[in-house]
């Protein structure tokens, strides 16, 4: 019995020795297919909210000024698209609720005018973030975020409509402003 116990002890000791002296195998962690990274001039603080329309974009080029022009053009295009969509909703709602004294031509003029204002309104945009980086291969990468206050759009609408003799008769500025602010509030919530 002692010999059996001695053999068993010897086997256990050899196993322990091999376990201690065997090279440790490190579990290999699979690398993910995607890697997290931060994009400059983007994130929640650069999203459209109840007060401002906002858009972010970037441009890449071997020429720094071209990278900047690409970023600015893309940000303005994004801003225009977002504003146009919101203005369309507000003007369609406003014109459907407002009878323009039965004048279909005035209703159509109002809708057309409001849509054309968007491109002019973009002149009031403000750059809220701009970062320029240089890539390893020597290209310039420009990141930009722009904003435009909803109040600017309302003001431009009122100014343009006040210049149209047919529309200013039927236009209720306060009602339009209220409708616009209600739509902007939907963005923020």
What does this structure look like?
It is a single chain. The protein has 189 residues and is α+β, with helices and mostly antiparallel strands. The protein has one domain. It is 57% helix and 15% strand. It is built from 6 helices and 3 strands; from the N terminus they run αβααββααα. The chain has a 3-stranded antiparallel beta sheet with strand order 1-3-2. Helix 2 runs antiparallel to helix 3 and helix 2 crosses helix 6. The protein starts with a helix and ends with a helix. Keywords: Signal. This is LPP20 lipoprotein.
List keywords for this structure.
single chain, 3-stranded antiparallel beta sheet, signal, elongated, LPP20 lipoprotein, 189 residues, alpha+beta, 3 strands
Summarize the structure.
By secondary structure, the chain is α+β, with helices and mostly antiparallel strands.
Class computed from helices, strands and strand pairing: alpha+beta
Largest sheet: 3 strands, antiparallel
Which percent range fits the helix content? 55-70%
Mean pLDDT across residues:
79
Low-pLDDT segments, ≥5 res: none
Tell me the β content: 15-25%
Order of strands across the main sheet: 1-3-2
Encode the helix/strand succession as letters.
HEHHEEHHH
Total number of helical segments? Answer: 6
- From the N-terminal CA to the C-terminal CA, the straight-line distance is 81 Å
Using only CA atoms, what is the Rg? 32 Å
How many discrete domains?
A: 1
Shape designation: elongated
The tally of beta strands, per DSSP, is 3
